[in-house]
């Protein structure tokens, strides 16, 4: 029995297509429906469907949005896209996202049923192939004997004896991380990989392959029985095909004896670290890199640079300065992305930074502790992130949450907020700053911040900013020879006329008159 999900915002089309399909396959197909892509997404992720038929333009999420989000979840059943728009760009986009066919409305019953027949045939071929399943099972058992913990020593020894393989036989190892494929489910990714493998490695007495799936990885163990150069060339061609398709692949650099298999496995797993550092290069990281010192001296210099940026980050966080922390942490991530240390070192460094933060400001201790096993568990984020970009995004959001929670615990929070607001004005008065800028900096609603500021200072935020700028301009007038327009620009007034008007409002005379009175 096959399950098909019909997705369309028009109830008549949903009902009509469902009846058309059930009439054609009364004993083998059941259908369900959804009125938009968002509802369909929840159903596909939660329940198994053998195929999806979806309209391309719908409210909330259309067909392209549905395919995009399913692709992110690696759950895309065979999908037919329907549309009343004969638009090649839509066709190309839907096929690129994983749709297997595209039909125009009004739907031709014959074309629809032919497409469904092809889907059902494909599903049957994948599920009913006893000889292939038996070969896969033997491969899988042997692979788990070499790479897993399966107790199959007898089968391993029989295979090695039969294949004339000894502990000294050279072998290569290749891993594919199927959790990062551009395809839908692991089964489809695996079928794709093995199809490519069979095209690159025709049967030969020069090598003996074992391959299969363990966890998130598809693994190839290739024993070289002769023609080492040919094995190297075939492996390189296979590797390139997989990488060209966007798969994450790591292979041993050169063959080693079977006795060194554990080293080859570790080498492949370390090789995936190159995919971790996925941030775009930024020039900001350049000032922290590029040393001509020896290896030991250079390593110490880079560790010191990391620690300096980390200290700046934790110091800013301890003072509830999220904006400052964000700036320093961004530079630290850019530095990591450029230097590419071991991922284990990176995780350890960032985790130490969180413990340092709690040591600097005890208000963060309950926040970090209470966030354990939640979406804001920052130590888990550091440990589990699969890429630097993912880690940066999650840490930025979580640290923002931590600062807000830690500030909420302050006994004199209102006085602290006013102090931070004044600091912000003092550090940024030269720029164009608004009430919204400062209220965001202290994590308050603009209207509430405006009322609080006036109640604590006796004047409005706008008046305080104006007065601060004018007092600063008076210092420049008294101790320098700048022209009026230069002073205006220096204190945050791009237009001199606005500066002169503000100066008169505060002092009762113009800047020139003030200078002449000195």
UniProtKB/TrEMBL annotation:
Q: Which GO terms describe its biological process?
A: phosphorelay signal transduction system
UniProt feature coiled coil, ranges: none
**Residue intervals of the Response regulatory domain:** 3-120
What keywords tag this UniProt record? DNA-binding, Phosphoprotein, Transcription, Transcription regulation
Q: Name one GO molecular function term.
A: DNA-binding transcription factor activity
Q: Which positions carry the signal peptide feature in this UniProt record?
A: none
Provide the HTH araC/xylS-type domain boundaries. 419-517
Protein function: May play the central regulatory role in sporulation. It may be an element of the effector pathway responsible for the activation of sporulation genes in response to nutritional stress. Spo0A may act in concert with spo0H (a sigma factor) to control the expression of some genes that are critical to the sporulation process.
**Which protein are we looking at?**
Stage 0 sporulation protein A homolog
